[in-house]
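Input sequence (255 aa), recorded before submission:
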Amino acid sequence: MRTILVVSSIMLWGGAALAGPPVVPKPLNAGVQYEPYPNTDISQIVFMTSRQEFRTGHAPYKPLKYQVAEFVLVAEHHRKYLRPDFKAEIQLAPARIRAGVELMADKNFQAKWKSVLTAYQKMLQAFRALKVPPPCKGAFEAYRKILEDEEFLAQTVAKRMFAAQDTRARELLRQDLSGRFRSRDAEWFDRLCDDFEKDGNLANFFPRFVDQFIEPGLKNARELAEKAMRDNGVDYAVAAAEEDGEDKGSEGEVE
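Predicted structure, token format:
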């Protein structure tokens, strides 16, 4: 009997040894790495310059949990680091032309704006091509739609305000934007457009419009992604940092 027990123990130990380390799931998208910490429920997900620790569960590892964590990281990396910043481009313009219609008439500013718009469209194309796990489809659509809204806003500025900067051009800008944005908050939409029609100050209009109509949509998309994450038993290893005071220029952990 003792011999049988010894042999059984050897066979079990040998089987475990032959099994090797737990299989790490494969990422959905290029450039993503999954790095589980042995003997813990924590894994580090890496995408380009962003990295974040998630509670993805102990081995054997479940691919869906990793894929959901991947989407949260990759989507936020696009928002924070790959999304070109039109507001920053306005701030970089010479102060002498920033506060009036001269900014939109300036050929150098127009060229830079169009360059940023082209970069934005490339970023959006890459975002649309992401592979997304089923639980994150709703969050993906929310991100996609609000990013498309920002592209439309910037494109409409170029379309209406670069050829002419008169009152009629500003009225046409308002008309173009109305169908897409006004129903979300008519009071704010009218206030911003009224001010812009009066002063033609893009440095005042555009950042406020983004803050009022784009940033809330991005926040909602992130919340949907985090809800999908938690609904599937995944969470941040460390509580996510508050958005207030976020420095968009520093890359590293997406928290």
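Checked by second reader. The mean pLDDT is 90.
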